[in-house]
Amino acid sequence: MSRDLENTLYLELKDGRVVIEMRPDLAPNHVTRIKELARDGFYDGIVFHRVIDGFMAQTGCPHGTGTGGSGQKLSAEFSGEAHIEGTCSMARAGHPDSADSQFFIMFDRAPHLDSQYSIWGQVVEGMDAVHKIKKGNSMDNGSVKDPDKIISLKVAADVE
């Protein structure tokens, strides 16, 4: 099967490449924004600041704390898709239209997130590398001491 390289991301982690198939059919504005940020190098070097074993790994905060973003809020694009292993979805604050640059990758199924967060992609290769991301302290909401980083996040069309 040939990939749509314009809607594929290469996420380079310490344990290898993760290939993410983006879903503009579900969240076109989120896909567009993530591609803009990836092309600007925004995600390169950013840490996975919140990682909860059996749940998800969150990244995309330039401060490494979960308190920041790129400064551009996105309106919610909720769908009926399920949050399953490998789902890429936007993190947000309490308000549905508060997503910015932070996102998470699911380790497992989490039905309580369905229709509450904007799903924009799915890991199609390299989930083993995602599972090796350093886990955080479950007693501290997944906060990670000396966290793993995104080496780079690139749009495949810009690489191939």
From TrEMBL:
Reactions performed catalytically: [protein]-peptidylproline (omega=180) = [protein]-peptidylproline (omega=0)
Domain of life: Bacteria
Keyword Isomerase carried by entry: yes
Annotated keywords: Isomerase, Rotamase
InterPro entries: Cyclophilin-like_dom_sf, Cyclophilin-type_PPIase, Cyclophilin-type_PPIase_dom, Cyclophilin_A-like
PPIase cyclophilin-type domain boundaries: 16-158
CDD domains recorded: cyclophilin
EC numbers, comma separated: 5.2.1.8
Gene3D superfamilies, per the entry: Cyclophilin-like
Gene Ontology MF terms in the entry: peptidyl-prolyl cis-trans isomerase activity
Pfam families recorded: Pro_isomerase
Enzyme class, broadest EC rank: isomerase
Function text: PPIases accelerate the folding of proteins. It catalyzes the cis-trans isomerization of proline imidic peptide bonds in oligopeptides.
Family: Belongs to the cyclophilin-type PPIase family.
Protein name, per record: Peptidyl-prolyl cis-trans isomerase
Lineage: Bacteria, Pseudomonadati, Pseudomonadota, Alphaproteobacteria, Sneathiellales
